Amino acid sequence: MGTPGLVPLLLAPLLLGPASAWRNASQRTFEVSYGRDCFLKDGQPFRYVSGSMHYSRVPRFYWKDRLLKMKMAGLNAVQTYVPWNFHEPRPGQYQFSGDQDVEHFLQLAHEMGLLVILRAGPYICAEWDMGGLPAWLLEKETIVLRSSDPDYLAAVDKWLGVLLPKMKPLLYQNGGPIITVQVENEYGSYFTCDFDYLRFLQKRFHYHLGDEVLLFTTDGAQEKYLQCGSLQGLYATVDFGPGVNITAAFLLQRKSEPRGPLVNSEFYTGWLDHWGHPHSTVKTEAVTSSLGDLLAWGANVNLYMFIGGTNFAYWNGANTPYAAQPTSYDYDAPLSEAGDLTEKYFAVRDIIRKFEKVPEGPIPPSTPKYAYGKVALKKLKTVEEALDILCPSGPIKSLYPLTFVQVKQYFGFVLYRTTLPRDCSDPTALSAPLGGVHDRAYVSVDRVPQGVLERNKVLTLNITGKAGATLDLLVENMGRVNYGRFNNDFKGLVSNLTLDCDILTNWTIFPLNTEDAVLSHLGGWGGHGGGRHVGSYAHSSSSYTLPAFYVGNFSIPSGIPQLPQDTFIQFPGWTKVWSAKQLLLLTETVRSVQGQVWINGFNLGRYWPARGPQVTLFVPQHILLTSSPNTVTVLELERAACDGGSLAPCVVELVDKPVINATLAFDRLPAQPFGHAAALDQA
User: Fold this and answer.
1) Which three-class secondary structure string do you get for 243-277?
2) Is 636 a catalytic residue?
3) Which of 88, 184, 186, 257 is catalytic?
4) Which regions in the chain score pLDDT beneath 50?
């Protein structure tokens, strides 16, 4: 076994401009020097100091701003994932424009003189829905993901045949910015340990990118991970955060790579969040101390994350035992979710400048924020009243419930409907055995709210109603598991429901296209104004309300320069903080506002302020209009503040400061560790 040496590494000059680079592509090389324990860039020793930015979590409008801030911090490279499901949401339907234009993102990095470390997947983890794998893979229910399963390999092969040819011209040796390409991600942490799968990927990457491309793997700094995650011909790197014994971590890398550069592919600047747990932070002093040590070692390092960004729409992932991640992916990174400069940014920059040349000149400032104030919303229709708009193709009939993928609904919501087979004048148990609801079901009988079933938390609900009454369950997908054995995470009613001991049958299933409905019918559904509405909970003893859409408008003030500006949306008066005892019990009596919010048809993501820690949602300026009023649409699932006979309107508020670390009663509960007892979430 070799020992890690301290190789003096010199920062190479910035990349040539794109035109010059392409003319001299034949002279450009990037390779591993095993004799000198370093990378060689154009034949000279080179060490990268990189930061992670996921283009899928930052609007294209802000790519240049974020990349420039990274460069001005002294980074010479950017690392990014390619989420397969972001580009192929349905089989054979590819999206590579707008916010999904990965080629443009890489070209922008190149123009700024930033090299690129491309993490091409096909699996990425990343706290992203299903780890970047498309949910439609689960249409074959027995598929073994991340293995040599022929159906899985066929889908991967087709995808790589689309993605990798787009990347080939952007490789460093071809004049572009990409110096290294990751194959898979932290594969040693997955149960399959299938070397035939890794060899298949290796061959396909070389087939599409050429034999000169430098391929690598990343695994946690544990021997068992490196044993299953590394393969001869793929350069093995490790990942670890502040406070870890650097010597021990790199000695583990040396077991796989006795010679060559030392690489920490994910040096954690912060950590991820989950709904119902405190906002994660990592002290700046811990980050800078360990970073300084890594750079003193001569190691190559990537700061994960340098900017976290946002899980817009439905892109967040989840961990097991099931815990969904929130909309914000701030990560306590050097650049905030909104791209603001933080104390950690300047502290990291000061460490980097001790080892590398940091560019001169002004750092782009944090973008200004504006508090546009309160926006009154009126109720439009409940989900049940709007089914003709939300499901224009009509429902699907089935004797037993079908999952989301079985009805080709991959995100959002599906409404399941049947009738009560017998009279339930007395409260009767509606149960989802084996955690059969993935992930939350909003239950009503004849449009009277009954409560919420929640995956692995609330499995039984007492309901009342007459024989023949309509039983509706609006089921929400809150994000697929992105890490571990059980990322084959089916959604919807994944097992039969029972009423007492009777299995419920004869289902009518409505896949809901909320995105098209919000875009096409804003203001066109008619409303009932304030007060009591058709479908309200007036006849229910529950304080739940039926899931319903609310809409309001606001205008950008005239006469104020530099508007529109970024803002944040919050739900004052919609939040009820519960006692720790109530939350610990997690019975059906625990209620909170929870739902989805759009501005001008742009899906900002999920809000859940009572569960926290996130209270506000980031609103980027490019989605706002100055020429006409801006439309706010809210799908509230549980408990709108303005329902229940009140004449007061629901109000949202646009503020100039984020709140992603609220201290709520729920946060004081002990957090469950992730990664064990995963059998609870087996789908």
Assistant:
1) CCCHHHHHHHHHHHCCCCCCEEEEEECCCCCCCCC
2) no
3) 186
4) 1-23, 522-523, 525-541, 576-591, 644-645, 666-683
